[in-house]
Amino acid sequence: MEKGRDGHCLPGKQPGKKSISIDLKKEVSLDSIMGLIDSSDVVMESYRPGVMKKLGLDYESIKKRNKNIVYCSITGYGAGGEWSRLGSHDLNYLALSGVLAQLKDESGKPIHPSITIADYFGSFAACERILAALLSKIRTGNGSYHCISITDVMASLMGNHLAIHEAIGESRGITQLNGEILCYGIYETKDGRFITLGALEPKFWVNFCDAVDRQEWKTAQFSVQRDSNPVFLALKKLFQSKTFQEWIEFGRQVDCCIAPVLEVGELEAFPYFQEKGIVYRNEEGHLEVSMHDGSVKDKGKPPSLGEHNSLLDSEVRQ
C-alpha cells in the first residue's frame, strides 16, 4: 500500500488488504502496534471491557499518541454494568433483546437461526458510528471514542413492538406484517417449495386477484390467515396448484409482490443475481457476494493470517 507522508493512501492507488498478526502479550508487540496507530484513522476492538486497558491499548492510552484517533469497541453488553463482564455470542444477543422470541414455529418454540443476525447488525452499527465519527473529525479535527453494544443494537429493532405491546398488548408487532393477514404471507407450492406474497397495497392485491381470476377475493385482502376463513383455504389451495417455477414466472409477469424462497445454492444461477452480478465467482473460482451492485469487486486474493508480518517494520517507519 503506497502512502504519502501523512500515512494516507496516495491518490489513484488501491490500498488492498493486509494481514499482520501480533502477539499482544509480548512487550515488543505494543511498540509495533503503536507505530501502526500513529498513522491510522480508526482502531476497532472486540475484547471484553477492560482487556485493552490491561494491554495498554485502550482509548486513553492511544490518544496520547494519536489525539485524532477514532476508537470503536464492539461489545456484547456495553462498557459497564454487571452484564458487561460476561461472555456472550450471537444467539445470546438475539435472546436477550427480544428478537429471538419473534422467530417461533407453530408450537411457539423459538427457531434457532442459521445466520448470525446480531453480529451482522452489530457490524452495521459500528460502521455507521465510525463513519459519523470520521465525518466529525473532518469538521472538528477531533477524534472520539465509541462503544457498541450488540444487544442494544438488536433491542433497537424492537421499538415498534414495544410501542404496540404497550398500546394493545400485542407481542408480535405490526399485524399487517407478522403473518396474520391473507395478502402478506408465505405459501407452499405444488412441489413443496415456498413463495412469499407481499401484496399490502390495494393495487398489488387487485393485480393478483385479476391475474388468477378471483375477483371475489378483492374485499378479503386483509382477512386473517385462519382455517375458518374460506378465502384463506382457497388461496392456499391455489398456491398448491402450481409449481415453484410456475409461481416464479407468474411473479415476473404480474406486478403483485411475489418472490420465491430461494435456497442458498440457488442464488448464483437465479436471474436477478446474474443480471446484477451481486453473487459472483472470484479469480480463484470461489463464490463471493457484493452488498451493492456498484461495489468494486476485489480481484486480488485475500491475505492469509500474518502474511504481511515481514512488512511491519517498514509500515511502522512510514
Largest sheet entry: 3 strands, parallel
Sheet-strand content, in percent, reads: 5-15%
Tally of separate helices: 12
| Unreliable segments of 5+ consecutive residues | 1-14
Gap between N and C termini: 11 Å
Walk me through this protein's architecture.
The protein has 318 residues and is α/β, with parallel strands linked by helices. The protein has helices at 27-37, 51-54, 59-63, 90-97, 117-140, 150-155, 159-168, 202-211, 230-239, 244-253, 271-276, 312-317; strands spanning 42-45, 70-75, 144-149, 184-188, 194-198, 258-260, 279-281, 287-289. The longest helix is centred in the middle third of the chain and has 24 residues, at 117-140. The protein is elongated, with a radius of gyration of 26 Å. Residues 1-14 have low confidence and may be disordered.
List keywords for this structure.
single chain; 318 residues; alpha/beta; Rossmann fold; formyl-coa transferase, domain 3; three-stranded parallel β-sheet; three-stranded antiparallel β-sheet; 8 strands; disordered N terminus
Write a short abstract of this structure.
This protein has 318 residues and is of the alpha/beta class. 35% of the residues lie in helices and 11% in strands.
